[in-house]
Predict the structure.
Amino acid sequence: MRSAFLVLLLGVLFSGCTGPTDPEQSTVADSPLCPAPCELAADTGPDRAFEPVAARHPTDPLRGVVVSAVFVGDDESGLGDGFKVHVTEDGGRTFDTFWLQDALEPTDPARRYTNYGDPWLVWLEEDRLLLFGGGATGMVAGTPLVAFKSFEIFVVTSTDGGRTWGDGQIIAEEPGVMSLPIQMPYFDQQHVTVGPDGRLLGGWARVYSYPDGASASDVLATQSMDGGTTWEPSVTVEEGDFMNARPAIEPDGTMWMVYRDYSGSEAVKPMHLSRSDDGGATWTQVDLGGLKSISRPNIAADANGVHFTIAEPVEDGFPRVTLVTYRDGGLSRYVLAEMKGEGEPLITVAADPRGGLWATWLEVQENSTNVIYGWHRDANGTERTQRLSDTPIGPNDPVGFIDWPSLGDYMGLGVGQDGAMAAWVSGTRSGQDVRAAFLS
């Protein structure tokens, strides 16, 4: 959401970014990740879908849920008019679509919001899902940019596979203004993950806007030990000017948070990685050796270390879609793809419960007819790469509330024992559809 107020340079700037090891180019295998047609239509309504997230049932290969922010009409406030939920029980052949607000209990606190943004979704067990989101009330009319009377991070859960929602809780709140020339904080890009023992770890940025136009944002974290019923007070991961916080938990309980330095106007941003060895009470920053990226990160953790994504700048060329692994104090890099044009690939990564990794990205083309790709590496190291989207996607604009079409700040990727479910949007300024793919 902060991208609505910051103009990022999309040109690929060479920053002298070098890692401890040279990037290794990945190979493309012939085995498909999904049969044709791979791209499935989750929602083709007239509204503009934005930032879809996906969750795949842990054991049922036919069940999945997608949640997306939605803009109705000409609304370009920086927050969506609501969340739409898309539920499938037949492998994506059909989806039931409805507004989250209509599926909430009448007394749930999340019903009172006038605007919603940055959903994030995890499937906890059998029929139970948890949704992290941002909610605002009372847009203030006549303000120079966007202002709200309050801004909160909320959690709601579903116990029937995503069809009804309730047990809403407020995790963090500010009485705040999003983008006025006064010093008032707000929250942005809240995300949540679940660890092997069921522990939930959430992370977000607390952003401050100042009268001179400057801003700062700290990375915060919170956790739940009981599946989202209660949440501990938030702690500071790092103070400064950071955004795009993404959490992960290793099998041994080590907690991780990856995020980017947001100071300055350059498109190439320094990467940051923090870890907690005491259950999230304190956090220590990891030295990444000056690693930089032009894209928002994503992160996953497994027995082989912690893996996060970057769009690696290339001198006199387009960026590389790169997977970085941190293990035993060392970094390694693995190139998944080379971009064919300028832009942000919005890479996602997730750990395969069977061993291995999943990833998706927006492959930027020179003619701006961009496409979505998926990648999988199994526990034996065998890799597969496949184009997932049939419908060309326009250039992704990080200031997506001004120029459409735009994927937003991220795409969705949920995993289960039988594979993954990817979600993205495609379309034009007048309407953006939710697309999905079941991968195995």
